[in-house]
Amino acid sequence: MKTSHIKFYQTGTYTVGNRLLSDADRSVQSTMERTNSLNSGHRACQGCGEALGARYAIDAAMRATGNRLIAANATGCLEVFSTPYPETSWQIPWIHSLFGNTAAVATGVAAALKVQGRDNTRVVAQGGDGGTTDIGFGCLSGMFERNDDVLYICYDNEAYMNTGVQRSSATPPAARTATTQAVGRSPGNVFGQGKNVPLIAMAHEIPYVATASVADVRDLEDKVTKAMAISGARYVHILVPCPLGWGSAPHDTIKLARLAIESGLFPVFEAEHGEITGRRHIRRQVPVEDYLRPQKRFAHLFKPVLQTDRLAALQAVADRNIRRFDLLEREDQV
Amino acid sequence: MLKQMEGSQAVAEAVALCRPEVICAYPITPQTHIVEKLGQLVKDGTLEHCEFVNVESEFAALSVAIGASATGARAYTATASQGLLYMAEAVYNASGLGLPIVMTIGNRAIGAPINIWNDQQDSMSMRDAGWIQLYAETNQEAIDLHIQAFRLAEELSVPVMVCMDGFILTHAYERVDVPEQADVDRFVPPFAPRQILDPQQPVTIGAMVGPEAFTEVRYLAHYRQMQALWLIPELAEDFEQQFGRASGGLIHEYRTAGAQTLVVALGSVNGTIKDVVDEMRDDGHAIGSVSICSFRPFPMKALKTALRTAQRVVVIEKSLAVGIGGIVSTDVRMALDGLDIAVHTVVAGLGGRAITRASLREAFDRAARNALQRLTFLDLKHDVIHAEIQRLESTRLSGPIAENILRELGIVADHIG
């Protein structure tokens, strides 16, 4: 988002009301024109980060394309809770084919639009972390390397939530899932595994890669808008807390998404053609403990005894992210 | 236009004449020459208004076709063997979504042991996937079936597999008549689906369906495919009127009048069978043959009518249902339900083993003497299997059968053919 000099009502925060911004800078969600592409009435759980992320992202993509958008959706929570036959929450043309082929289906949609000369209609593919980083990864990588005109959005809630919270390659170390149980000598998910798909996307040197969070709607909308202004393969990876899978309170979804950023565990950045071009700076780094403690999936780190060494290992992950992506705000950047 | 050309190239030209708008390509023997040629036709501008997508797997190939077809583009791909199995999930999905994709199968064996040569195990494994399956006897028929397939698929909203025997057809050079563009344009109208992905009229495609409606959805898939039983002959008739040659249809009969023994088969082996039928007719045997062109939907009535006066039916099939025997013959038995006709299964040509006239003649002679077993493996090397069975009986350890047999056989190249 471009910086503009505004007098904040709440000093010491980034909070600013929409009415203080110019029309162009106001969030899509605050406008009367927002399309509610994922309409109310769906079956998502209370506090679902994915439902929120999908609405933010698709509404922004709709505005960016003048409402000419087609979505391909992977099997998963988003698909199941939005389209129980014969109902649908989608206000846009939408197709669900399989779990692992969403990027390829989107490629097919884009190819058809191109050959038909419907160039002003754009394509979004979307899926959860399982459908993206695991089973859909082959098709995703193929779509990237061919530089097909598709924006792929991954709603990352860090496990297979639709099937009952099993580990994916996006599950963080130490997290309890139904297949990385909080039992034994090293409870929860193992350290040193998993893959970073935003970085892998960058390795394909595609025009645009970004990470975003439901805690920062303007940044998220900005990145989707930017992505829709670019042709070729684009990837936006959004962290979306899952109260059910994370064992967190539904009202803490945004708070946790923010703490994930502020702790350094979820770096928010953007990259063009394989090079990092921007990052969302952290003003005051919070200890990872603040982020982990409210989540039952990490409860075994705190009781019956405090697992100081494992907490230190997670803190090291956050610190490395901060160094690697240059996330900490310095005085000269204020 | 009459041309001397390879089967794959001929099929590629026929597909191009049907004006596909999206073609997805992934190499697998023996289908590869088809997509290579199509790629060339797109790149050199012969085939206009077409996106040729080099994908990363067969699963992606059919998935791209699914996305394209749902967006209103005529979509085509080709595969074989392991490739067809690798895309299996998308095969069921395409038919479930009612997308009229046309796909060529260059029929090839399924491993392990890995084998690149022809049999029909691959397409047989997908016989229940909701696709119409047409089997070509010759390269000319392969051309003609593709032209009929696009119209058939789009009229019924059901995807169609055109199956042609790998190498035997795909790699054989022979004279074919490639139709003119104007004639094909007259036969295959532009693709005009009822519903596509379009922001002007947003629709949700691929919603979740529960027990309250799933049975009905499946019934209607069956109902729709059964409509092909009248549409396939109708299209074949139209085709004959316009192009002047008979191709396609549900079944082809050959010298069936007064036959006591009738042979049933799919695909190119019918050529050899007809030669043997001629030979045996010359020798005074009452024998004929029936070639099944449409295996799905299965032409139950047409087959019953063609076979009902025979005393025995011999089904030559290039596939094996391990644990029961025949695949095609099981369906043939169902068609003959209630009739007192013996049905024999002859499994032949697995993994590219040549089906010779001599071996067929021997099997048919045996059938005529009522001495053919219900299940026969044509040209089975009994010494090899006996040795392996003995070895298996002497030790309870599991282990690789294929490697043991190859050790017994020695240099493999000496034994092909």
Tally of helical runs of chain A: 11
Give helix % range of chain B: 40-55%
Major sheet summary line of chain B: 7 strands, mixed
CATH architecture of the largest domain in chain B: 3-Layer(aba) Sandwich
Q: Can you offer a commentary on this structure?
A:
- The complex is a heterodimer of chains A (334) and B (417).
- Chain A has 334 residues and is an alpha/beta fold.
- Chain A has one domain (18-333): 3-Layer(aba) Sandwich (Rossmann fold), CATH 3.40.50.970.
- Chain A is built from eleven helices and eight strands.
- Chain A has an eight-stranded mixed sheet, with helices on both faces.
- In chain A, strand 1, helix 2 (77-82) and strand 2 form a beta-alpha-beta unit.
- The longest helix of chain A has 17 residues, at 308-324.
- Chain A is globular.
- The mean pLDDT of chain A is 94.
- Chain B has 417 residues and is of the alpha/beta class.
- Chain B folds into three domains: 2-194 and 208-243, Thiamin diphosphate (ThDP)-binding fold, Pyr/PP domains (Rossmann fold); 251-377, 3-Layer(aba) Sandwich (Rossmann fold), CATH 3.40.50; 383-415, no CATH class.
- Helix content of chain B is 41%, strand content 18%.
- Chain B is built from 16 helices and 16 strands.
- In chain B, the strands form three sheets. Chain B has a seven-stranded mixed sheet with strand order 3-2-4-5-7-6-13, sandwiched between helices.
- In chain B, strand 15 (342-347), helix 14 (357-368) and strand 16 form a beta-alpha-beta unit.
- In chain B, helix 11 crosses helix 14.
- Chain B starts with a strand and ends in an 8-residue tail after the last helix.
- Classes of the chains: A alpha/beta (334), B alpha/beta (417).
- Strand 2 (94-96) of chain A pairs parallel with strand 9 (204-205) of chain B.
Question: Quick summary of this structure?
Answer:
Chain A has 334 residues and is of the alpha/beta class. Chain A has eleven helices and eight strands.
